[in-house]
Amino acid sequence: MAELKASVTWQEDKAFLGVAPSGHEVQLDANKEKGASPMELVLLGLGGCASYDVVSILQKSRQEVTDVRCELTAQRADTVPAVYTDIHLHFIVTGKDVKEKQIERAIHLSADKYCSASRMLVDGGVNITHDYAYIAE
């Protein structure tokens, strides 16, 4: 098992600087004008992980994809801890002659097999759903 190291350093008030294992920095802040909240980053992490998988699987399937966008909607519990209870991922796939069966397959493989963020959240009790729209060029 590989060990990863990251850090989060308090800057001021409710602002923190996160440094990922890759060295990339992320501004975290309770003031949404200054940075993303930790829970927003969890949501973006899920969207990024799933989108990476979908693009990769479609490319390996030789689908001519020109754009993929993942729009996420989420609900959180009303009580502390205000965990995510439901998250929906809506993929908008644009391309030339992309087979919709391949889009469906890519989304299902990501959700069921490859997306670590998705598996972690589902195993933690989050209801995650998916759908997609295809825009032909």
TrEMBL record:
Organism for this UniProt entry: Psychrobacter aestuarii
Name of the featured protein: OsmC family protein
Pfam family, one: OsmC
InterPro entries reported for this sequence: KH_dom-like_a/b, OsmC/Ohr_fam, OsmC/Ohrsf
